[in-house]
What does this fold into?
Amino acid sequence: MRTQVAIIGAGPSGLLLGRLLELAGIDTVILESRAREYVLGRIRAGVLESGTVELLERAGVAQRLHEEALIHDTCGIAYAGGHLSVDLRGLTGKPVIVYGQTEVTKDLMDAREALSMYEAAGVQIHDFDGERPRVTWTGGSLECDFIAGCDGFHGVCRASVPAERIRLYEKTYPFGWLGVLSDTPPVSEELVYVSHERGFALCSQRSRTRSRYYLQCPLSEQVDEWPDERFWAELRRRLPEALATRLVTGPSIEKSIAPLRSFVAEPLSFGRLFLAGDAAHIVPPTGAKGLNLAASDVHYLSSALIDFYKGNEEGLKTYSSRALARVWKAERFSWWLTKLLHLFPEEGQFGRRMQLAELEYLAGSRAAQMALAENYVGLPY
Ligand code: FAS
Ligand code: PHB
It folds into this structure.
């Protein structure tokens, strides 16, 4: 078998890249280790930047998004001193769009016409330093011009790069996010990030009848230690009174604990192999940047590959530096917001007072809110 671009991974990165290349007439094959249903069943991101929506429009997969997504002009921050509603659209001219990653993935899967191989076991990549890279898997092999490593943090592509050719930057956080999805009406029109003495909480949503909540929890916690009743009681304790009284509880339809980390690999290109999305970087989800960074990587990489097949190799040469310039700014924002809103007992009482002082400053400063808003809605590509 032969194709022009072999894409490893059918998450948002791989599917969006495949779709944009397909529309440009470039042959692609996607190889995914999991079943289609498994990929669709993963509950992850919920907030899209307008740049991501524009890319999905260019990919011709934004129709259902425009019918079902929620447009949010503000986002809330609740803390001991009060409740701040950051006027995202008033400060930046842009909203954020609430539309689950699962829906984005489904829209991209439904639109794809070229070959996707699910449950491809034992995927390996070869000869990506030469002109004729190859991909093999149990039962098959594929020759190609390029390999796009869109296989996430635990994928095979980044792991195939010799250690001496790649620099890894990593910070792990001493806690995780316990997430619950429930068919209950959201507690608030806007998303609310909560800084509380018992720990961080986030009130998000998927629609007007489906809510997504998160609680900061120790990494030692197990999901089965958190029956719904315990989750709702803890969430209610962390919410300000005005929200706690409005909280509608119900059975969880998904419950999981995700670890938090900041991670960047440099560079992102190795001969004919290019890394994109979670294969290249990870952010703590506090800033809602993970999925959106995958989109901007795909913007740069798809443009570079399209230009290559038109005879211009410049984009491929600069892909890594262009993508990383935006990645590091999102890493900073996600790290900053995580440090501001989560409990870090090891920082002691002084550390806690620094957090509260910064929240008070944020509440009183248009300049500080502008800085938060322009990062939250997404920096320009
Ligand atoms: P993905 O990990 O989504 O996709 C990679 C794909 O490659 C997977 O389908 C995987 O099965 C496949 N794969 C892996 N190894 C392979 C191999 N050897 N061969 C073939 N296929 C292989 N971001 C936010 O913005 N907000 C959030 O709230 C949020 N929550 C998250 C919770 C969790 C538990 C995780 C893990 C991530 C979360 N993220 C969140 C980040 C997430 O949304 C990612 O940024 C997004 O999925 C990135 O998409 P991809 O780069 O496509 O990686
Ligand atoms: C979500 O809805 O899953 C979500 C929203 C905002 C975040 C993180 C996750 O910062």
Q: What stands out?
A: The radius of gyration is 21 Å. Residues 5-45+101-170+261-338 form a domain with the FAD/NAD(P)-binding domain fold (CATH 3.50.50.60). The mean pLDDT is 97. The CA atoms of residues 325 and 381 lie 10 Å apart.
